Amino acid sequence: MQPLTESEIRGSFANTGGHDLEHMTFPGLHEIVWEDREFLGWRDAHAIQRGYIVYWRAGRPVGILLKAAGSHTRPGISAMCSLCRTPLPGGQVTLFTAPRAGQAGIDGSTVGYYICSDLTCSMLIRKLPPPSEMQPDPAEIIASRASGLSSRLESFTDDVLRAG
User: Fold this and answer.
1) Domain extent listing, the chain
2) DSSP string, the chain
3) How crowded is residue 83: how many other Cβ atoms within 10 Å of its Cβ?
4) How confident is the model at residue 104 (pLDDT cuts 50, 70, 90)?
5) Other Cβ atoms closer than 10 A to 50
6) CA atoms of 6 and 10, how far apart (whole Å)
7) How confident is the model at residue 123 (pLDDT cuts 50, 70, 90)?
8) Are 39 and 53 in contact (CB under 8 A)?
């Protein structure tokens, strides 16, 4: 992923504007290893129910505002992230809704996805299984996971941008 500035991030959001963006908190952008990410995802430190995903799409940054559901999966239940397809304990996967872009979102239409609670899918796909003769080259595993994650993120974004 190419690096982004705060102003590029603020200007990238397809499904929100104004007040939501004025009060947005940012992660430490100077600490991010950009080349190891398919997207930048984070939870707002001052509005914890709010999350953000920003990535490069067709040569420009696109941001999506997310809102975390208030309820959580019961302890002992497993869940899978819809983006990175990592199975995790239920408490580590959250139902996020994203208002659709445009009038549909203003009218209350949303898209829901189960996503890693901390929005760190890019790091999870880089965790390799134990070495084995049956496993392909680690670089191939990561490339395949990254491709799948990017494809599912594009599909999610298409759903958010669709009029309803």
Assistant:
1) 6-123+133-161
2) -----HHHHHTTBSS--THHHHT-----GGG--GGG-SSEEEE-SSSTTEEEEEEEETTEEEEEEEEE-S--PPTT-EEE-TTT--EEEGGGEEEEEEEPSHHHHHTT-EEEEEEETT--HHHHTTPPPPP-TTS--HHHHHHHHHHHHHHHHHHHHHHHHS--
3) 28
4) very high
5) 20
6) 6
7) very high
8) yes
pLDDT digits (tens, 9 = 90+) for 38-50: 999 999 999 999 9
Within 13 Å of residue 98, how many CA atoms lie on the same side as its CB?
A: 27
| Residue that has been written with the tokens 């941008």 in this structure | 161
Of 68-82, 128-142, 145-159, the range with the highest mean pLDDT is 145-159
- Asked if residues 129 and 46 have their Cβ atoms less than 8 Å apart, the reply is no
Contact 66, 51 (CB under 8 A): yes
Q: Span 48-77, mean pLDDT?
A: 90
The predicted structure's pLDDT at residue 164: 62
